[in-house]
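so my prof wants the structure for this chain in the tokens format not the other one, which i didnt know existed until like an hour ago. anyway here's the sequence
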Amino acid sequence: MRAPRFWQSGGASWPCLLLAPVGALYDAVTRWRFARVASVKAPIPVICVGNLTAGGSGKTPAALAIAAMLRAKGYRPAFLSRGYGGSEAGPLLVDPSCHSAAKVGDEPLLLAANGPAIVSRDRVAGLGEALRIGADAVVMDDGLQNPSLAKTVGLAIVDGEAGIGNGRVIPAGPLRARLDFQFSLADAVIVVGSGEAGEDVAARARARGIPVFAARLDGAADHGLAGRKLVAFAGIGRPEKFFASLAATGAEVVARRSFGDHHVYSERDCAGLLALARQTGAELMTTTKDLARLGAGTAPSQRAVADKTKTLPVELRFKDGGEFERFVLARLAMPAAGNASQSAPAPDAVSR
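here's what i got, hopefully its the right format
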């Protein structure tokens, strides 16, 4: 899906107004699910990294950074993902050597390269698999708006440049539910990158007493791209962020091709990219998530693009990593709240 332009408008355009009743229904359904579903309490910490909006904001790099922080403190975390874009319902422990993006999704493949990653549309069943493999913490990539599994720490990721767009709920805008409700699910907000839109969300969060942490996405320092000619393409939430990162390396981006988020590259797409690279005499460059999806293709043009394309890996870095670490560790040390949640059963019984 490619985000419509009116999602970044002032919210009074005719598409926004026309779709506002549908957005109100979407919001009501989300709230109804939380009122109806009793969340399962895990016997281990569950840290959820989620978006307030549809589209990319740096959620997966944040999950990777948090897992690395936990490992440095002696934890054995496992990633838990719904596996968006993949056919596998799970629970399944991802094996990058034999599982493709078509089966498990692109994000789980990136996570699995950095630690145990489980795909499960049923998050409680995914918890059972994490317990089975001996994990003592779970890092959920997405799922802030999913009530089935109680979160020890809920982290809302916000793109500093895009913010919450027009402030309306899907499909009238990018929000997954009304902002006040989503803030009630978040223990902290992480603003990735700079911009007035992100500052506005940060101010609203602070007004509700929610801690806000600033972070940025950094490319590899030894990228060696300065002066090189590139054809850049990406099928992520905001491809322009990737293109800007490449330009910042000093590379000459001679052509840009944007695709919808989680785009599955066809033979025609790949043939066009190869032709463009030949015409411009440039190298192909994409994101690590896109390359994971390209790896599932079997046609000659798909294999050629996968073999010829390079990536610029990025890492999420906090402005004050020590402050964020202290916040998370303090939350992990807190006793579980005595609410309407139910305790998780034994590992071999956590399934549905």
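also thought this was worth mentioning. Residues 222-312 form one domain.
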